[in-house]
């Protein structure tokens, strides 16, 4: 999708008006159908475990794979959007998501769910969500911040509604028929994609049967220039591959920017414990005698509070008082997530678990609202897309392995409390690591400025909230932007 405004020359620009609001509505629904969808799997945990005679670790793998693919598929979605456009990517994602869930209703083993729900549905959700966010960036210029904040409420709506719907359908018709119905519901992503009509023209793909670079070779031959030597061609291909990796995976920033390095490691460590309550809270409650319907309500409480707290947290963090201090707010939110787990350790009564969900939801709102704002603070905006690619892939790895490893610990000990002990360990240690590391870097920077002595290896990308280009805030989004949400 090009950056162009009107569909035709002289036509009125569609940004921030008219059809743009329909695109915003579609984005809200997309986020509810994709990011919010993963919240319902805890409802099926016990039934799937009994159906396939699987351990806690084995049962948690399929949801972990889905969440990891959803977060880590950003670079692949980015390439797809750049070549075919947002509408195509969203609709393809809807088809994959629906196909994955329909196929899962016929699975005969837990490992088949890894492929259907984990890989196929996860990849489809990734395409639909991230391409939808990209389309939203093209349709909104002046009201882009408001549009993104409004669209993020779809995640909270999904967290609220999916567990309740899941428990009702599970009680009425079993998990297989429920997954079949879910496949039909996720096909509505295609409807949302149809609404996101392109604003400008797409890059033209090569003609069928045409090899990349063939036109350049023909031009060389027509001008009497010999084609490059095969060795030079191989070197050119390696250079091109390196450039592609550099574009979507910013390893140079990770090596040179200490703040980006600390933040990426810190968030990856955070994700080892962040997803654990979402996976194991419902099984933990049922294991301790809470009725299944009331146990499913716990996840909905988290989502309902998020609807109101997440936008408020985003607006609060944007105040000038917090300029340069968002990383500390983020660390504080992660720390609160870790400390809240001790409530579950004290008691598993339903009223106590409701209190836990309220506190956890407030802390989660801070983490979700600040994750990418802080990332924008620690890297230059012209490299943000590349930095985000590496960031989401590293994050997806820990999201993948965290729940299964903890499930293995529960299988060995037979005690669900280890879920919350493990979650607290990762969250609290990550919060302290990020907060203290950034504090040390700031002190080091102040000493350098005071002494006017250059550091041996200064960071190329200083932690600053002022854009390097005065016009940066008013510029349209990059050609391809892939964003995940927590």
Explain the overall architecture.
About 75% of the residues lie in helices and about 0% in strands. With about 475 residues, it is mainly α. Helix 3 (about 55-70) runs parallel beside helix 6 (about 110-140) and helix 5 runs antiparallel to helix 8 (about 190-195). The longest helix is centred in the middle third of the chain and has 43 residues, at about 145-185. It is globular and about 65 Å long.
Helix percentage range: over 70%
Estimated share of beta-strand residues: under 5%
Give unreliable regions as ranges: 1-12, 201-227, 459-484
Which sequence of SSEs, written as H and E, runs from N to C? HHHHHHHHHHHHHHHHHH
Q: Radius of gyration, rounded?
A: 24 Å
The end-to-end distance, rounded to whole angstroms, is 26 Å
| 3D shape | globular
Class computed from helices, strands and strand pairing: mainly alpha
Number of helices: 18
Number of strands: 0
- Residue-averaged pLDDT, rounded? 80
Main sheet: strands, sense, barrel? none
Key structural traits:
486 residues, mainly alpha
Brief rundown of the structure:
This protein has about 475 residues and is mainly α. Helices cover about 75% and strands about 0% of the residues.
SSE layout and pairing:
Layout: H1 19-33, H2 41-52, H3 56-72, H4 74-84, H5 86-104, H6 110-139, H7 144-186, H8 188-195, H9 214-222, H10 230-248, H11 251-256, H12 258-274, H13 276-287, H14 292-317, H15 326-346, H16 350-378, H17 384-413, H18 417-451
Helix pairs in contact: 1-6, 1-7, 1-8, 2-3, 2-7, 2-13, 3-6, 3-17, 4-5, 4-6, 5-6, 5-7, 5-8, 6-7, 7-14, 12-17, 12-18, 13-14, 13-18, 14-16, 15-16, 15-18, 17-18
